[in-house]
Design goal:
seven-stranded mixed β-sheet; 11 strands
């Protein structure tokens, strides 16, 4: 079994900051990509930021310059520092990981349960 557990969501005023964390645990052999997606009401889930095991990052255009993704490979943890938050950032944020489980040879995608981020104007 593998679990991804997010923390750090909440309510913040526009212009404020939040830091999301996500820890992957369980029978993990190796983690490749980790990242964050979000889904606002009535909209499709979209990629926010992605980071490879080597530290290469990718961001959706709307968060570039405001959000920073990072990871601690020793702790199987990914972070999302969100600054200058806007009301349009309001969504449920989901942690994502592409990994190989112990005794299994294929990469599989796993998701967290989601954490709500609400930005008030």
């Amino acid at each position: 079994q593998v679990q991804l557990v997010e923390s750090g969501g909440g309510l913040v005023q526009a212009g404020g900051s939040l830091r999301l964390s996500c820890v992957a645990s369980g029978s993990i052999f190796s983690i490749y990509n980790m990242g964050w997606y979000r889904q606002a009401p009535g909209k499709q889930r979209e990629l926010v930021a992605l980071i490879t095991r080597g530290g290469t990052t990718n961001y959706t255009d709307s968060v570039k310059g405001r959000f920073t993704i990072s990871r601690d490979n020793a702790k199987n943890t990914v972070y999302l520092q969100m600054n200058s938050l806007k009301p349009e950032d309001t969504a449920v944020y989901y942690c994502y990981s592409n990994l190989i489980r112990v005794l299994l040879g294929t990469k599989t995608d796993y998701w967290g349960q989601g954490t709500q981020v609400t930005v008030s104007s």
